[in-house]
Every structure is written in structure tokens, then in C-alpha cells.
Amino acid sequence: MPASVRILADENIPGLPHAFGEDVTVQKMPGRDIQRSDLSAVDALLLRSVTRVNEDLLKGTSVKFVGTATIGLDHIDLDYLNASNIGFAYAPGSNAQSVVEYVLAAIAFWLQRTNRTFKGLKVGIVGVGRIGGLLQKYLQQMGVHCLLCDPPRQAQEPNETYYSLQSMSEADVISFHVPLTQRGPWPTRHLIDVAFLNALSADQLLINTARGDILDNQMALYYVQNTASPVNLVLDVWQNEPMINAQLVQHCLLATPHIAGYAIEGKWRATAMLCQALSDYFQVPFKRTALDRNIRVNDPWQPQSNENKVSKLLSYYDISQDDQALRNEIKNLPQSFDKLRKNYPTRHEFLASV
Ligand SMILES: NC(=O)c1ccc[n+]([C@@H]2O[C@H](COP(=O)([O-])OP(=O)(O)OC[C@H]3O[C@@H](n4cnc5c(N)ncnc54)[C@H](O)[C@@H]3O)[C@@H](O)[C@H]2O)c1
Ligand SMILES: O=C(O)[C@H](O)[C@H](O)COP(=O)(O)O
Q: Catalytic center at which residues (predicted)?
């Protein structure tokens, strides 16, 4: 192992280099600009989702360890890392609560607009992993009925009740929490197809916080432009970020620049997970306490049965501000998309754990 560990990090990962001592050096760069030529004297690369990690980037470099401060892994060629014996870490669950709070705020926004409450609501959850499972717990705590769709889990848990993707159209709200995959028995690229959209109506809400490629955006634009009463769309993730489909934005109930997971505690939790993994890998000390105080949620909200959950949720997180910020900057794409993400205002997690 090197005498000192040289890290190249995405400039949008908070908390570096304070978590390490003098045996670690940290250089920062915009994630989209990182190229192979930047990696000749780098031991560890710490990234976000905007840097594609593959043979093109890493071949012939000195990189021994890659960490991504994200839940999603679709930007990483894991086969190449394994074959090249490069250490790897990611941040599973780090921003799950943030995404769940985004989804609950989006539902609350829609309910308020339609003068409704959570009472009697049916929510379909597609992908019941860390995020989908947490969403299910919070919704059930609020008395909301959930329909679960997760074929990989269904194959492992034949005695549990799971629904098909098609039957999700029975729900008032359908929220997607699948990883982006192209291969295997249950690929998710373009999982939301025209047949699925055609089975929905203007009385329903579809939320995609998973990845942009789950929904063919060009097809979705055609659908909203040519359907009398299209489903209400809430999109946080887009195909071809940062050059997203500006026309589709105009047709969304809520449109945001991939910030569902951006509550500040989630970001610091991801940093802590990567620093711990890097510290174990290179056997260098890591000051966990330097990060811990940013991860704690102050005074969390425990929903009560007799309170107005719609207005309470929106008082914690007014999601319409994130939507408005994107609409205000839509003429300045693609730069504005990354700018809004880089300068995202501080949003705190607010739900008590379930
Ligand atoms: N918008 C954001 O800011 C944001 C933040 C965090 C994560 N994400 C995205 O959310 C995804 C899910 O995160 P997670 O932590 O819950 O992942 P997870 O791996 O814990 O859960 C994913 C679940 O999806 C299921 N699944 C896989 N293929 C499926 C299919 N075809 N149909 C239905 N279910 C399927 C899996 O069985 C699993 O239970 C991430 O991969 C990432 O792309 C987005
Ligand atoms: O997968 C994730 O964790 C999220 O999509 C994450 O919030 C993406 O943010 P980025 O890495 O692009 O800043």
C-alpha cells in the first residue's frame, strides 16, 4: 500500500478531506470532467453518478480503489473492476430516507391540489428494496394501503403477496424504485412502456425517482401530447441528463433535477460509508466523528393519526420549490441542470425512523 493515499474526488462530495489525516491527500474535480489522463497519480477515485467508470477511464491508471457516493450503480462497470482487482465501495441506503421523503412530499402536493387526503389511498411500489421497502413502512404507518411489485423478490419469497407490473394500474399512485438494468430476467430499461401508460388516467400519479432510462422519455412526450387525460407525472430522473427533454418537463406535474436523494444527511452518510471503506482498504485512520454530527436528524416527525399529514409533509419539504427552480432555468439547459444540483439548498431529513 502507498505511504500516503492520493484521492481524486468529485467536488460535490461533502466532508472531504476533513475525515482523514495527513496520510491522505484529496484533489477535487467536477465529476463530469474526470478523464483517464487525470488518473496517473491517483490511488482512489471517489465519485458520484455523473462519472462513468469503465475500462476506458481506468485502463493503465494507478487507481486501486473506486468508491461511489450513490445508491445506484448503473454508471459503474463492476465486471471490469472485479476483473482488474480494483477495490470498490458504494453507499447502499445512504439517501433512501431522502428519496422516500421526496415521494411522500410529491404525493402530498398532488393530494392537496386535488383536495384529498391520504385516507383510502392505494400506492403501488415497483421495486421493494431499501427505498421501496422504507416507503412501504412509512405509508403503512400512515394507514395507506400498498401494492408491491418486485419479481426478483417474488421469485425468492413465493409465499408473500406481490402484484404484476400490469396490475399496478389499480393503484392511485405508482412509484418506481428499481435499479437501472439492461440484462438478466427482469431488465428495467424502458420498464414503463406505452402499454403501461395507456392503462393509466388523469386520476392517477406516476413517480419516477429511479433512473431516467426506466421511462422512454421520447415515448412519454408523445403519450402526454396525444392522450386526452394522461396520468400525472412526477419525474426526478431523466434520460440524457443533463440535456433533458425540456418539452416533457412542461407536461409534468412536478419536474426536478435528480435531487430526490439530496437531503444533506444522506450525502454525509454516503461520505462516511466511503471513507470507512477506503480506510479499511488502505489501512489509514479515518475520523468518523468529524462526519457524524452532520448525519443526525434533529427533532424528527412521527406522524400522528389525528393530524393533517398533507400540510405537515409540505411544511417540512415544499417540493414545488424544486420544481419551480428547474422550470425557471429550463432555457439554460444543459448547464442549469448541473448548476441546480451543485447549488442545491440545504434540505434536511425529517421523518422519525420506523
Ligand atoms: N433520484 C435519486 O436521487 C435516487 C437516489 C437513490 C437511489 N435512486 C435509484 O433508486 C434505485 C433503487 O434503490 P434501492 O436502494 O431501493 O435499491 P435496492 O437494490 O435496495 O432495491 C431495488 C429493488 O428493485 C427490485 N427489482 C429489480 N428489478 C425489478 C423489476 N424489473 N421490477 C420490479 N422490481 C425490480 C429488486 O429486487 C430490489 O428489491 C437505485 O438503483 C437508484 O437508481 C435514485
Ligand atoms: O443513486 C443515488 O444515490 C442517487 O441517484 C444520487 O443522489 C445521485 O446523485 P449524484 O451522484 O448524481 O450527485
A: 211, 241, 258 (proton donor)
Q: What's the predicted TM-score (pTM) here?
A: 0.97
Q: Considering every ligand atom shown, identify the ligand nearest to the alpha carbon of residue 91 and give its number.
A: 2
Q: Ligand 1: list residues with CB < 6 Å.
A: 71-72, 95-96, 99, 126-132, 149-153, 177-180, 186, 188, 191, 209-211, 236-237, 258, 260-261
Distance from the alpha carbon of residue 58 to the mean position of ligand 2, in angstroms: 21
Ligand 1 centre to CA of 127 (Å) is 6
Q: Which ligand is nearest to the CA of 241?
A: 2
What stretches of 179-258 show up as alpha helix (H) in DSSP?
Answer: 194-198, 217-226, 246-250
For residue 77, the enclosing domain spans: 5-92+264-292
Q: Is 70 annotated as a binding residue?
A: yes
Judgement on whether residues 203 and 318 belong to the same structural domain of the protein: yes
Closest C-alpha to ligand 2, atom 9: 49
- Nearest atom (ligand 2) to Cα of 270: 3
pLDDT 10s digit of each residue in the chain, 354 long? 556 899 999 999 999 888 898 899 999 999 999 999 999 999 999 999 999 999 999 999 999 999 999 999 999 999 999 999 999 999 999 999 999 999 999 999 999 999 999 999 999 999 999 999 999 999 999 999 999 999 999 999 999 999 999 999 999 999 999 999 999 999 999 999 999 999 999 999 999 999 999 999 999 999 999 999 999 999 999 999 999 999 999 999 999 999 999 999 999 999 999 999 999 999 999 988 878 888 877 789 988 888 899 999 999 999 999 999 999 999 999 999 999 999 999 999 999 988
Whether residues 132 and 181 share a domain: the answer is yes
Q: Are 107 and 324 a contacting pair, CB within 8 Å? A: no
Alpha helices in the chain (DSSP H): 55-58, 78-83, 96-113, 130-141, 151-156, 194-198, 217-226, 246-250, 264-282, 289-292, 309-316, 319-328, 335-342
Given a contact cutoff of 8 angstroms between Cβ atoms, the answer to whether 29 and 7 are in contact is: no
Q: How many domains does the chain have?
A: 2
